[in-house]
Amino acid sequence: MTPREKEIINLLKKNPGISQQEIADELNITRSGVSTHINNLMSSGYILGRGYILREDTYVAVLGGCNMDIIGYSFDNLKVRDSNPGKIKYSSGGVGRNICENLARLGINTTFLSVLGKDDAAKNILDELNHINVDSSKILISEGITPHYLAILDEEKDMYVAIADMDLLKNIDKDYIDKNKKIIENAEFTIIDTNLEEETLDYILKNIKGKFLIDGVSTKKVIKIKNLLNKIDFLKVNNYEAKTLSGLDTDNINSLGEDLIDKGLKSLVITAGSRGAFYFEKDFKRVRKPDPVKVVNASGAGDAFMAGYAYGLYNDFDIDKRMKAAEAAARIALKSANSCSKDMNENNLKGEIYD
């Protein structure tokens, strides 16, 4: 923010209804000059919308997938190549969107950068985001169908197979990133999922200033960041994604974590189900075993884990408490039928941390 823009912000704080001409008269500059500064402040995220709504607090940016989830599960043991009586549910999803919702429910100001189509699915998603106070004003509305994610769960309510139709995410390109550059640079940190195109990830991590937390998403998608590890502040992957990214032919999580840190990562968590969550940074590591929980739906647990970790980072928790927050958020998600739990809030998270 320039000194002149700070002067304008101060005037807007005193009088949100002030006109651009009144600002110009007060500061002895032209009205067109005021308009340029106002546009810059809106692009940078300091002004959130009409009526000069100002951003008073710090925020987290999330850049990634936003889609409609279709989740099906069988009442009995899943039988392949057969029709299985069960349940099918529709809900808003996407790794980036899920992280956004969890962060917002945990009381963190969150700006979402993503893309949606011109359809009813997009309208429903936007309505839900606005209802929980996620800043959705920077989401790109593009020609085409909103991304969809179709998952079949097994009898343990864990994912058996899934199909992701994410072609619209190709519209998150260099131009879109440049347009929203200040949103990323002014955030406390930016969480990115690897649903983005490899060229987009490469451009962001090499050219945009900021602190970046990356969610690996899947074995196929995490490989996009293989040559960008030294640009990443924190990475969350599961043990399969870690093995794919490392290239080592081993299931030893300590070896995988140490190898990825040696390749340039600043910090890393590898989640491994019942084996626990493994945290690594240079010459330091921690392992936390999960508390038992009755799983209702596992599809959103990883996204909640990332949100819980980000919540801890945002609030300056030490690494042990940060990992507890991540695990607590994942447990809340595991007990929900939806990918994001409506029970996700600070009180319930603290309850899970300290119980």
UniProtKB/TrEMBL annotation:
<dbReference type="InterPro" id="IPR036390">
    <property type="entry name" value="WH_DNA-bd_sf"/>
</dbReference>
<dbReference type="InterPro" id="IPR000485">
    <property type="entry name" value="AsnC-type_HTH_dom"/>
</dbReference>
<dbReference type="GO" id="GO:0043565">
    <property type="term" value="F:sequence-specific DNA binding"/>
</dbReference>
<dbReference type="InterPro" id="IPR029056">
    <property type="entry name" value="Ribokinase-like"/>
</dbReference>
<keyword id="KW-0808">Transferase</keyword>
<keyword id="KW-0418">Kinase</keyword>
<dbReference type="GO" id="GO:0016301">
    <property type="term" value="F:kinase activity"/>
</dbReference>
<feature type="domain" description="HTH asnC-type">
    <location>
        <begin position="1"/>
        <end position="74"/>
    </location>
</feature>
<dbReference type="GO" id="GO:0006796">
    <property type="term" value="P:phosphate-containing compound metabolic process"/>
</dbReference>
<dbReference type="Pfam" id="PF00294">
    <property type="entry name" value="PfkB"/>
</dbReference>
<dbReference type="InterPro" id="IPR002139">
    <property type="entry name" value="Ribo/fructo_kinase"/>
</dbReference>
<dbReference type="InterPro" id="IPR036388">
    <property type="entry name" value="WH-like_DNA-bd_sf"/>
</dbReference>
<dbReference type="Pfam" id="PF13412">
    <property type="entry name" value="HTH_24"/>
</dbReference>
<protein>
    <submittedName>
        <fullName>Carbohydrate kinase</fullName>
    </submittedName>
</protein>
<dbReference type="InterPro" id="IPR011611">
    <property type="entry name" value="PfkB_dom"/>
</dbReference>
